[in-house]
Design a protein that fits this description.
single chain, mainly alpha, 33 helices, elongated
């Protein structure tokens, strides 16, 4: 062959290889994009299957790359072949030496393949004690590992057959093939080694279990779909069972062992979880827990609309699911084993398992209208029992994890079912929240549980369905837990800290802050807004169902001198302000305006239940009670809350007279009169000033209970203030700021009248 022709052929083949390589790179990128898009679009039950499919595509791409590389090598080596034949293979002895080389290398390769794979298989088999029997059989017959042995043996035999070349012109090609064969065998040995390591790795073993179980359940689901036309319903059964996937249900009833592999998979995962948790390898035990949840997710997807649930009146025996019951029982046994060892990490993992299973069961598609989430409630029941046992062991971290888990399950239920389905979960969270009152070490548990209740309130408030019973359940759980917690006499100042997620008006992440954000959005919404009326109605419902427990807790915390009383006092006036603000918003339904203003008046009336004595009066003044009432009255004036304003006005007058006599050293009477005077002047109505003087005259006998020296001092303070009214740029007290900002002549005249009504002129 001439060199110019050889050069042209070489250039043409090189260009073809480059073109094929470019197309291969483009196809590889396309496979990667498709893989990512499929993972985004597909539900999590099919995610692993898509990953396997993408992996197989990548193996095809690698095989194509290998073939292209071999072809390129052959083309590059073609000029060298001519030179080797013309230079070195000139006699028959040279050809015999080449044949001997092929025979010896091939024989050695066969031996090497046998030895290498014997060692690899032995390395797998010595791990038999670490894996269940069924999994050991599956791994010992791994197709990829045996396939790599088969192909390496074939390559070794092929190298041996190269010794049969008939003439020297094939020698250079045979040498190239031998080199590629040796490289291929080394690659297969490396792949077998890495595959053996993967099979020995317990996490990889669990992945194999997941894959086998998932594929088996998907296969059963496809069989049920294909066999569906064979199951025809008679008219009576059609009427009774039409809401179910009757064909699938009948198929599964005819094949009761269709879940055998899934049950084996759960047992394997539970076994791994226990075994590796005992040895301290919590990474493997955590992955085993995740495998249990994934297998149950695949089971729920395969079973489809064949689940039954109790309807509240009639017990449905078909609601019992053997696979789910078996899973929960095995996890319970793992929990009890971990608890007996006080293995906190393993306990946490079993708690997460119950939480994950409960969340997976929320995906069950019950055909009945309004069916209860029976299987979710069953998993939550197991979780509740586990947390009750943990509470006796004084493990606050586990309790906090359980409270968060219950909150996650409740949110998952809210995403797929009516809000009344979470009432049982809410009750359990409330019980956990009360645990902090029994043990000071458990107080962070209370804080975590209150966080979950507060978040659930905000979730429920944004729903369109009827939510009154759910809101009432959450409110009762929160207020009940707070009542028990605030009874604890130890460190009364810490009560508000641990209950702050639900009651604090100062924290940015608390429930009152979240409600204020909703209120601001609802007030700013236009009259034709789609969702604002629903939010307003839900907020009104929440405040209505919370009023009675709020009143009881307020009185209780004041009696206990708890720091929570500060939040309760401000919560009372804030509720009144919220109701009045919503009633005046453009998006408020007209049928709720008067009802909300009446409810605001009822919240203001809660403060009338406070009974004063020396301790209570001083306690209230330490929380700026007078200024609190003034701000509430000013808000009621601005928001057209006439009834609420009159209630607050009466409260201020009574507080000034009664509280001023009991709270010593606070100048309570003077501050209350300043507040009433400021409210009267800012109203711009002479009627308010006349009402104040008239009411002071009517209660003259109560004023006479003050000592004469006290009345003289109060009158002097009022007159001094009347003569020193001025506006200040940075006044911190709301009452003083309003006194200086209003009509000073009217304010001074009214203060003089109040001072005169005390009957202390003679003493002055």
């Amino acid at each position: 062959m001439r060199k110019p022709e050889l050069s042209k052929r070489y250039d043409a083949m090189t260009a073809a290889i480059r073109k094929s390589w470019g197309e291969l790179v483009q196809h590889s990128k396309k496979y990667a994009r498709l893989k990512k898009a499929e993972l985004v679009r597909t539900r999590y039950v099919q995610r692993d299957r898509l990953i396997d499919l993408a992996s197989r595509k990548m193996w095809v791409a690698r095989a194509v790359i290998f073939l292209l590389a071999a072809s390129a090598t052959a083309l590059v080596a073609e000029p060298l072949q001519v030179r080797v034949i013309e230079t070195y293979l000139t006699t028959k002895d040279d050809l015999a030496a080449i044949k001997s080389l092929f025979l010896n290398v091939g024989s050695a390769s066969i031996g090497a393949a046998a030895i290498a794979f014997s060692i690899v298989l032995f390395a797998i088999q010595i791990n038999v004690e670490r894996m269940p029997q069924g999994l050991f059989r599956r791994l010992s017959s791994d197709r990829r590992l045996l396939g790599s042995f088969f192909f390496s043996f074939v390559v070794a035999v092929a190298i041996t057959f190269l010794s049969l070349i008939p003439s020297a012109k094939y020698a250079s090609a045979a040498l190239l093939a031998m080199c590629w064969g040796i490289g291929t065998m080394l690659g297969l040995f490396l792949y077998a080694y890495r595959r053996a390591l993967s099979l020995i790795n317990p996490i990889e073993q669990l992945k194999i279990v997941q894959s086998v179980v998932r594929n088996d359940l998907l296969a059963w689901g496809k069989r049920a779909l294909r066999m569906g036309p064979l199951f025809e319903l008679d008219p009576e059964t059609q009427r009774r069972e039409s809401q179910y996937d009757y064909a699938r249900l009948s198929f599964f009833n005819d094949h009761p062992h269709w879940t055998r592999l899934a049950e084996d998979g759960v047992r394997t995962a539970v076994s791994y979880s226990r075994q590796y948790a005992q040895s301290g390898d919590y990474e493997v035990s955590q992955f085993a827990i995740l495998s249990i949840v994934k297998i149950n997710g695949a089971y729920v997807a395969a079973k489809g609309r064949t689940f039954f649930a109790h309807n509240g009146f009639i017990d449905e025996p078909r609601a019992t699911d053997g696979f789910i019951n078996s899973t929960l029982e095995q996890v319970k046994q793992s929990f009890q084993l971990a608890l007996s060892r006080r293995d906190e990490q393993h306990i946490n993992q079993t708690i997460r398992t119950f939480t994950g299973l409960a969340a997976v069961y929320t995906f069950i598609d019950y055909p009945q209208e309004g069916a209860s989430r029976h299987h979710t409630n069953l998993a939550v029941g197991y979780l509740k029992s586990a947390l009750e046992e943990v509470a006796r062991q004084n493990l606050p971290d586990v309790m906090m994890l359980g409270a968060r888990g219950l909150g996650d399950v409740a949110r998952a239920v809210l995403a797929r079912a009516p809000s009344d389905q979470i009432r049982g979960i809410v009750e359990r969270i409330g019980v956990i929240a009360a645990i902090g009152a029994l043990n000071s070490n458990q107080r962070p548990v209370t804080q975590t549980a209150m966080e979950q209740l507060a978040d659930l309130i905000l979730q429920v408030l944004q729903r369109q369905q009827e939510i009154e019973s759910t809101l009432e359940k959450i409110a009762l759980a929160a207020y009940g837990a707070a009542t028990i917690f605030s009874t604890s006499p130890e460190d009364l100042r810490s009560h508000s800290d641990y209950l702050s997620p639900y009651f604090s008006t100062a924290q940015l992440s608390s429930l009152p802050t979240g409600i204020n954000l909703l209120v601001n959005a609802a007030i700013a919404a236009p009259a034709d807004h789609e969702h604002a009326p629903t939010i307003i109605r839900n907020l009104y419902t929440l405040l209505k169902v919370s009023r009675r427990p709020h009143k009881d807790l307020l009185i209780h915390t004041i009696g206990q001198r708890s720091s929570l009383a500060f939040d309760m006092l401000h919560g009372t006036t804030d509720a009144m302000e919220i109701l009045l603000a919503l009633a005046g918003g453009p998006a408020c339904p007209q049928n709720l305006v008067e009802a909300m203003r009446d409810e605001a008046d009822r919240y203001a009336s809660i403060l009338t239940w406070i009974r004063f004595d020396d301790g209570v009066a001083n306690f209230l003044e330490s929380h700026s009670y007078t200024e609190l009432l003034f701000r509430a009255g000013a808000t009621a004036q601005d928001r057209d809350g006439t009834d609420a304003y009159e209630t607050v006005r009466d409260l201020l007058l009574n507080w000034g007279i009664e509280g001023g006599r009991l709270a010593r050293g606070w100048a309570t009477f003077e501050q209350a009169m300043f507040a009433l005077c400021a409210l009267a002047v800012r109203s711009g109505s002479q009627h308010e000033a006349e009402w104040l003087i008239r009411r002071l005259t009517e209660r003259h006998e109560d004023l006479l209970l003050y000592e004469l020296d006290e009345r003289v001092g109060i009158a002097r303070a009022l007159r001094d203030r009347a003569h020193r009214l001025r506006a200040r740029a940075y006044e911190l007290n709301d009452i003083d700021r309003q006194l200086g900002a209003g009509d000073r002549n009217a304010t001074g005249h009214l203060l003089e009248q109040i001072a005169a009504s005390l009957g202390a002129d003679g003493g002055a």
